[in-house]
Amino acid sequence: MLGVTALWGWSYVVVQDAVALLPVPAFLAYRFLGAAAVVGLFQARAPGRITAREALGGTVAGGVLFTAYALQTVGLKDTTVSNAAFITGLAVVFTPLLGALVLRTPPRAHQAAGAALALAGLSLLTLKGLSVNRGDVLMLACALSFTVQNVLLAHLGPGTRTGPLTLVQLAVVGLAGLLWSLATGSLAAPSGRSVWLALAVTAVPGSALAFFVKTKAFATSSPHRIALIMAMEPVFAGVSGYWLSGDTFTAVNLCGAALIVCAILLAETGRRRAAPCRRRSDRTSGDLRR
């Protein structure tokens, strides 16, 4: 999952160049329909048909995912990139809270501390000014949409197969992007090396592989832990911007990135320490029963 987050962070640069030449709705349609086709090729060899739970759950999760991308795209027109990155990153904090309400899995002390530390790091890394406007409200709705999708994957994962669930999600986002393109008259054929490169990177590793890994991760691990790992995305985005686009870092930005890394290490360290404690507790209980 950390590798996927690194890939998403790096892809900001190539996507930024591509959407300057190809309308966003068309880009989303090509990206996610292409990703769905790749997953479909592998899924065609898998035994069993897509179940009703996988179809319905994937459709709902895909609809929420498309909503998040649409809100993020529209919101960027009326807010700064820094504010957008910070507000979207609030999903790191929202995911444990919604998970506690819906899944009845309250975060442990080290997870709550990691979320708070990640929030502080995100603010130092990305926020250069605080203003509330229409774009900020849309970005907040985007963060909430990503949060809902995270919790949906955590809820659906244990009872579904990763491949079919991923396929349905990607297909829903791609078809919604296609309908958006047709409704706005913005459907255009990709042209230019930068556009094709961005589509190739974001469709295959950035969507087909990445969302398969994300769906599997939320099915096999706690949403609190995965959300913290995803907080590394703006860190990787900043590094790729520095090397590829000439972006600069201030001392405050670097402190923010360091805090995010520390937040993940705190959550992971606490998780490893908790496991031996549970095993010792289990052995003690077994001794008492004997």
TrEMBL record:
The chain crosses the membrane at residues 20-42, 54-72, 84-103, 112-131, 137-156, 168-189, 195-213, 225-244, 250-270. Belongs to the EamA transporter family. It comes from the Bacteria. It is found in: Cell membrane. This is DMT family transporter. It is a multi-pass membrane protein. The lineage of its organism: Bacteria, Bacillati, Actinomycetota, Actinomycetes, Kitasatosporales. Residues 2-126, 134-266 form the EamA domain. It comes from Streptomyces aureoversilis. Pfam families: EamA. The keyword Flavoprotein does not apply. Its main location: membrane. Keywords: Cell membrane, Membrane, Transmembrane, Transmembrane helix.
